[in-house]
């Protein structure tokens, strides 16, 4: 029996430095048993304000009230585009097409899948095909939405549609001018999966997507 | 032989909608051969400006010049804290300690490792021990830096130190008031690794960290 079982509760020391006189609070430190339903209490959103807006980003402030009555203001960043797409192109020979590209925020080159934001009125599918064409020179006759991912990062909100692209045809490249140093690599999926497990790929999102692709290939070999 | 071999080059259609008269540009779409060194040309940073600053965030604009002479302004967001920490607490019985917490940017609860920002003048190690104590009630007698991760996200920059915490002792919880609904879970590492491979954990950063922990355990059983 661990010390922090379901039933044990702990008094919490006051963390506020505003000198508030708060009631004693108790936390459930339990490990949910199999099949047990979690009781969760999302905070109430009291107010949402846009405090900065630029060409691509919005900074948002949000006043929250937690289930214990505690109020806090959180900040996060939202992309102004309607969403982002990531495309995982899988060739019939089992190779995945990836790109190596300079990323400003990371200040280095990263290995990743073709990725971009929705432009104008285009749908996520149209954006996926456009980014695939621009970055790798391939088009795809089949596109499957594998996942719609909402950011789980602490400070970033966005909807990100992840596609599997099949039945590829190489038609030539059409790139943004800021992508001139991007390189296209074709690698066997099993090799890429091994690279992910051996931590040879640094981007958490890319690693996650590789696991997703591998998982789907394991689950339904038929989609090839 | 793939169509997009090392030697084939493609003329690129003009992507600018500003009507600029640009020279024809050529891209290398090569797949690097084994052992071949990549020739990469990071863009020159011409100017960096802070365009917004709040309690926790800065929005930065950066003028870049790519190796083909093309200039572009990029935006990204930087945390004002000196860095973030993530702690992976591994108990001697092979269980990892995780938390389930509400994240404002995701607008839902996520399963993750104790995580936070450096406060005041504290070192990453001090922040790691503080977050571990606050969020799980554990202290650790051994702390190993597994990785210093620079964000590879397109729009977010930050340094994130990832620690392995060993020789744990439960001493009781001490939490921020906004963390009242956080739940502590203790799960066998092998089970957590399986959850990651089966895509039962949604946060890419958490999945990446689980792979890292599993990889290290495979590589050096001795560290337990």
CATH class assignment of the largest domain in chain A: Alpha Beta
Specify the helix fraction band of chain A: 10-25%
Identify the biggest protein-protein contact and residues per side.
A-B, 94 and 94 residues
End-to-end separation of chain A in angstroms reads 47 Å
Low-pLDDT parts of chain A are: 1-38
Question: How does CATH name the architecture of the largest domain in chain A?
Answer: Alpha-Beta Complex
Shape of chain A: globular
CATH fold label of the largest domain in chain A: Nucleoside Triphosphate Pyrophosphohydrolase
SSE layout and pairing:
The structure is a homodimer.
Chain A: E1 9-11, E2 26-28, E3 44-53, E4 57-65, E5 71-79, E6 84-89, E7 95-103, E8 108-112, E9 115-117, H1 124-136, E10 138-150, E11 156-157, E12 159-170, E13 183-188, H2 189-197, H3 204-219
Helix pairs in contact in A: 2-3
Could you explain the architecture of this structure?
The structure is a homodimer. With about 220 residues, chain A is of the alpha+beta class. Chain A has 2 domains: about 45-80; about 85-224, Nucleoside Triphosphate Pyrophosphohydrolase (Alpha-Beta Complex). Helices cover about 15% and strands about 40% of the residues of chain A. Chain A contains 3 helices and 13 strands. Chain A has helices spanning about 125-135, 190-195, 205-220, and strands at about 10, 25-30, 45-55, 55-65, 70-80, 85-90, 95-105, 110, 115, 140-150, 155, 160-170, 185-190. In chain A, the strands form 4 sheets. Chain A has a 4-stranded mixed beta sheet, with no helix packed on it. The first copy, chain A, has a 4-stranded mixed beta sheet with strand order 9-6-12-10, sandwiched between helices. A 3-stranded antiparallel beta sheet of chain A has the order 8-7-13. In chain A, β7 and β8 (about 110) form a beta hairpin. In chain A, α2 (about 190-195) crosses α3. The radius of gyration of chain A is 22 Å and the shape is globular. The first copy, chain A, starts with 8 loop residues before the first strand and ends in a 5-residue tail after the last helix. Mean pLDDT of chain A is about 75; it is low at about 1-40. At the A-B interface, β4, β5, β7, β8 and β11 of A face β4, β5, β7, β8 and β11 of B.
């Amino acid at each position: 029996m661990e010390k922090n079982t379901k039933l044990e509760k702990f008094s919490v020391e006051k963390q506020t430095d505003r000198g508030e006189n708060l009631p004693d609070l108790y936390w459930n430190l339990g490990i949910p048993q199999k099949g047990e339903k979690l009781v969760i209490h999302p905070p109430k959103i009291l107010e949402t304000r846009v405090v900065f807006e630029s060409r691509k980003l919005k900074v948002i402030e949000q006043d929250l009230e937690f289930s214990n009555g505690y109020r806090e203001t959180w900040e996060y960043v939202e992309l102004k585009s309607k969403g982002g797409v990531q495309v995982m192109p899988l060739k019939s020979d089992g190779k995945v097409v990836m790109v190596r590209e300079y990323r400003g925020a990371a200040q280095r080159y990263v290995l990743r899948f073709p990725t971009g934001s929705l432009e104008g009125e285009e749908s996520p599918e149209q954006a996926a095909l456009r980014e695939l064409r621009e970055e790798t020179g391939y088009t795809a006759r089949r596109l499957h939405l594998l996942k719609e991912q909402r950011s789980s990062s602490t400070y970033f909100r966005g909807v990100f549609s992840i596609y599997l692209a099949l039945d590829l045809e190489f038609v030539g490249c059409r790139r943004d001018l800021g992508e001139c140093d991007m390189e296209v690599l074709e690698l066997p999926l099993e090799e890429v999966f091994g690279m992910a497990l051996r931590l040879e790929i640094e981007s958490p999102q890319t690693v996650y997507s590789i696991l997703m692709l591998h998982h789907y290939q394991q689950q339904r070999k038929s989609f090839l």
